[in-house]
Design goal:
Layout: H1 2-5, H2 17-34, H3 39-46, H4 49-52, H5 60-69, H6 76-103, H7 115-146, H8 164-167, H9 173-191, H10 201-220, H11 224-248, H12 260-283
Helix pairs in contact: 6-7, 7-12, 9-10, 10-11, 11-12
Length: about 290
């Protein structure tokens, strides 16, 4: 996996190795609570074609329940539902994403250090990334449903999120849930063993959050722009966590001084622009 992430030209690279690794960890970790899979179930879960390259990241026990249902999940209504998702996903990925790539993103000089050009590049990449990735995820869901497998939803209008916590409940949902269950929670419990950190709940939460997003960045690739974008997302979540803690302790909520519509708009504006910055870094298009 390290060689794959370093982009070393190795003949043993495996397509979808990152997602396969996460599935293996989940299946092994949960077998005590949910039981193990036989060889056919396990290999079907690991190498399910629609989700092999870029998710969504399913859970083994949920996948197994669909396999156990057999042909009961294959019906005319599910085929139609799956076909609709496949068409919508194809529209997103092969029409909208390609349109943005050709007529907006592709027209921008990524080496330019002009502020206006960099801002334009950041917003165009954000639009392209959403249409491309959300489109792929919708197509994977559609094909899965047509085959009798209810692939979990991965995107839910993420750019309408009001804060980082809500954003990760809308954006790459299955990755966020996986990292929470199999990294954030264990590291949080581990850090509480240290006497200095015991009782410092906010600090432990923020350390765990930062390490989780650092892992996410490294998971995308061991290059600076992936890692730094992960740290940015970790910083956003830690700042939000501190702000929520501050308000709960009686601090003034700066968003409560305006109307609900204005407050909602301000939160969304701050969040979407924060995401644009992090995804711009993620893209590797920053002219450094």
């Amino acid at each position: 996996m390290i060689l794959f992430k370093l982009d070393v030209d190795v003949m043993y690279k495996v397509i979808g190795i990152s997602y396969i690794t996460f599935r293996v960890i989940q299946a092994i970790s949960d077998q005590k609570n949910y039981g193990s899979l036989d060889f056919f179930e396990f290999t079907s879960y690991l190498f399910f074609p629609p989700t092999l390259l870029a998710g969504p990241i399913d859970r083994s026990y949920r996948f197994k329940s669909d396999l156990d249902n057999g042909y009961n999940n294959i019906s005319t209504s599910n085929f139609v539902r799956g076909w609709e998702l496949l068409v919508i996903g194809g529209l997103f990925k092969f029409v909208l994403a390609e349109f943005v790539a050709k007529f907006w993103l592709g027209e921008i000089d990524a080496t330019s250090t002009s502020i206006a050009t960099m801002v334009n590049s950041a917003y165009s990449y954000t639009a392209y990334f959403y249409f491309d990735f959300a489109g792929y995820s919708a197509m994977a869901m559609g094909v899965g449903i047509m085959l009798g497998i209810s692939v979990p939803k991965n995107f839910d209008k993420p750019y309408l999120a009001q804060n980082p916590q809500e954003f990760w409940r809308r954006f790459h949902i299955t990755l966020g849930a996986w990292l929470t269950d199999y990294f954030f929670k264990p590291i949080y419990m581990y850090l509480q063993r240290f006497s200095y950190l015991r009782g410092r709940r906010l600090l432990v939460q923020n350390i765990s959050i930062t390490l989780t997003f650092l892992l996410m960045g490294m998971w995308n690739g061991l290059v600076w722009h992936y890692i730094f974008s992960g740290l940015l997302f970790g910083l956003y979540s830690s700042i939000h966590n501190c702000y929520v803690h501050y308000v709960k302790k009686g601090g003034a909520d700066i968003f409560s001084v305006s109307s609900n519509i204005l407050s909602l708009s301000m939160k969304r504006l701050i969040m979407v622009n924060s995401v644009v910055l992090a995804l711009y870094v993620f893209s590797g298009r920053v002219p450094l």
